[in-house]
Write a structure and sequence with these properties.
Shape: flat
Distance between the termini: 46 Å
Number of helices: 2
Structural class: alpha+beta
Number of strands: 3
Helix content: 25-40%
Largest sheet: 3 strands, antiparallel
Organism: Vitis vinifera (Grape)
Order of helices and strands: HEEEH
Protein name: Mitochondrial protein
Strand content: 25-35%
Strand order of the largest sheet: 1-2-3
Radius of gyration: 19 Å
Length: 96
C-alpha cells in the first residue's frame, strides 16, 4: 500500500510537469541543408563510486536535432583517450 502512495505522487509530479510545459515543443522547419553532423563529449571517470565515464552525443540533420543520448559507459576506461573512443564509437553506431 505504501508503494501505491509513492507511485501516485510520481504520477502527480509528471502531470504537473506536462501542464507547465504544454506550450514547449520542437519546431521543425523546411531546410535544404542535408548535412549530417554529430557532436560527442565524454567525462572521463566521472563517477566516484565505480570510476566509469559518462558519454553523450547529439546528431543533427541540417539544423534539426534528430538524435541525442547521455549514458554512463559500461566499462572502466584506462585513459581519457579510451573513453573518448568509446563515446565516438557509440555516436558512430547511432549514425549508422
Amino acid at each position: 500500500m505504501h508503494s501505491l502512495t509513492t507511485h501516485w505522487q510520481a504520477v502527480k509530479r509528471i502531470l504537473h510537469y506536462l501542464k507547465s510545459t504544454i506550450y514547449h515543443g520542437i519546431s521543425l522547419q523546411p531546410s535544404t541543408d542535408l548535412s549530417l553532423i554529430c557532436y560527442t563529449d565524454v567525462d572521463w571517470a566521472s563517477c566516484p563510486d565505480d570510476r566509469k565515464s559518462t558519454s553523450g552525443h547529439c546528431c543533427f540533420l541540417g539544423p534539426i536535432l534528430i538524435s541525442w543520448s547521455c549514458t554512463k559507459q559500461k566499462v572502466v576506461s584506462r585513459s581519457s583517450v579510451e573513453s573518448e573512443y568509446r563515446g565516438l564509437a557509440n555516436a558512430a553506431s547511432e549514425l549508422i
